[in-house]
Amino acid sequence: MTVHKITTTIFDGVPSLPPTEQLCQEYHEAKVTEEAAKANAPALALAAQNKKAAIKGHPPYMEKRCNDCHDKSTDSGLIKPKDQICFVCHPTIIKKYYVHGPVSVGACLDCHDPHSSGQPALLKVEKKDLCAVCHKEKRIAESMHKKVTESGMACTDCHDPHDGDAKYFLR
């Protein structure tokens, strides 16, 4: 936006910018695709491709309340740093003693899409595939975990993805 203001001041005939909503949507779609490519995660790339078929939306995004999170005057384009933005509206997400690493550092956007998703809870990938995006290490009680996942259960059926009173976030 700032570059456009400078450019239009110096040069004649510079086309006007498209509406803010279109810029935001194009930026977001490009960012999701870029992040999926960087992570080299096929599931994340598939989620980015399926954006058009989104079935769930974050209320501020769906209601076009972009300013709830975005501020064009900041370098990041956000009202708070990326690792603090979700806590503006969700300050009590951490309630228990043991806290999952990404949650403790505000990396909510590693798992959740801030705008819309075809998955419940605005997840970037299906619930059954989510933990495997990061967790590649050998599981404790591996044979039990294998049986459980083969039966169609997701990690979050036994483990809370945010925090817990028990070690390993067991429910």
Automatic annotation (TrEMBL):
The keyword Signal applies. Keywords: Signal. InterPro entries: Multihaem_cyt_sf (IPR036280), Multiheme_Cytochr_ET (IPR051829), Paired_CXXCH_1 (IPR010177). Residues 58-92, 100-139 form the Doubled CXXCH motif domain. The keyword Signal applies. Signal peptide: none annotated. PANTHER family: DISSIMILATORY SULFITE REDUCTASE SIRA, SURFACE LOCALIZED DECAHEME CYTOCHROME C LIPOPROTEIN. This is Cytochrome c3 family protein. It comes from Geomonas paludis.
